Amino acid sequence: MKNAVPQAASLLLEKLLLLVHVRPLPAGSGGEPPPAAAPDYYDTSCFKRGDLLEVPRTLFIHFGIYLGENRVAHLMPDILPVLTGDRRQIEQVVTNKRLILGVITRTASIRVDTVEDFAYGGSILVNHMDRLFQDKVLGSEEAARRAEKLVGATAYSLLWNNCEHFVTYCRYGAPVSFQTDKFCETLKMIIRDQRSVLASVLVGLASIVCLGLAPSTTLPTIFIPFFLWMAG
């Protein structure tokens, strides 16, 4: 990924991103997903094999590749494939407990679920990212075949290998994550702002030492860092 933050900071960034990747579950659910939506809740007739599906959440977007026949391939953090080979258990909808443990242990699976289980009750956008890649969009069948070949257990990283990396590789040929890029740029901006505050404090203190206590030196030393911090 271009302009990536140093590798030493990746663990901290992943912890910061953890909460925004957890799907909210209703109160009293005990960590289990709500009942699946009715099979006709989504009109799958408008989806084509190889389409890139997006489900906007409150703080993030979940991505998948439509395979046809009401099936979606998507990458999900999941601890269960490490603990058991029972396909019946693994194929059940991933709960928050499984997801969180998968993020912590950096384990995941590219799984195939129904549109209802994938969307989790959210609205679905179709091929919304095509405008960002223009002539780099691969053929629909090629995208679907790439997704099918990758189905199974995989390593997971909120920064370097998440559901967005998976779908962009399948449909556009290059694994990228705009969500991760945006988060990293925001974090860099915050760090730069904090450095500006620190620099202004040091300059102000130096002016007080050199010129003595006076309104012309003391007030800027107090108010400039304060406003820079508020703006950050």
Automatic annotation (TrEMBL):
One of its GO terms (molecular function) is phosphatidylcholine-retinol O-acyltransferase activity. One of its GO terms (cellular component) is endoplasmic reticulum membrane. Its EC number is 2.3.1.135. Pathway: Cofactor metabolism; retinol metabolism. It catalyses: all-trans-retinol--[retinol-binding protein] + a 1,2-diacyl-sn-glycero-3-phosphocholine = apo--[retinol-binding protein] + an all-trans-retinyl ester + a 2-acyl-sn-glycero-3-phosphocholine; 1,2-dihexadecanoyl-sn-glycero-3-phosphocholine + all-trans-retinol = all-trans-retinyl hexadecanoate + 2-hexadecanoyl-sn-glycero-3-phosphocholine; 1,2-diheptanoyl-sn-glycero-3-phosphocholine + all-trans-retinol--[retinol-binding protein] = all-trans-retinyl heptanoate + 2-heptanoyl-sn-glycero-3-phosphocholine + apo--[retinol-binding protein]; 1,2-dioctanoyl-sn-glycero-3-phosphocholine + all-trans-retinol--[retinol-binding protein] = 2-octanoyl-sn-glycero-3-phosphocholine + all-trans-retinyl octanoate + apo--[retinol-binding protein]. Residues 52-179 form the LRAT domain. Keywords: Acyltransferase, Cytoplasm, Endoplasmic reticulum, Endosome, Lipid metabolism, Membrane, Sensory transduction, Signal, Transferase, Transmembrane, Transmembrane helix, Vision. Its main location: cytoplasm. Residues 1-27 form the signal peptide. GO terms for biological process: retinol metabolic process; visual perception; vitamin A metabolic process. Belongs to the H-rev107 family. This is Lecithin retinol acyltransferase.
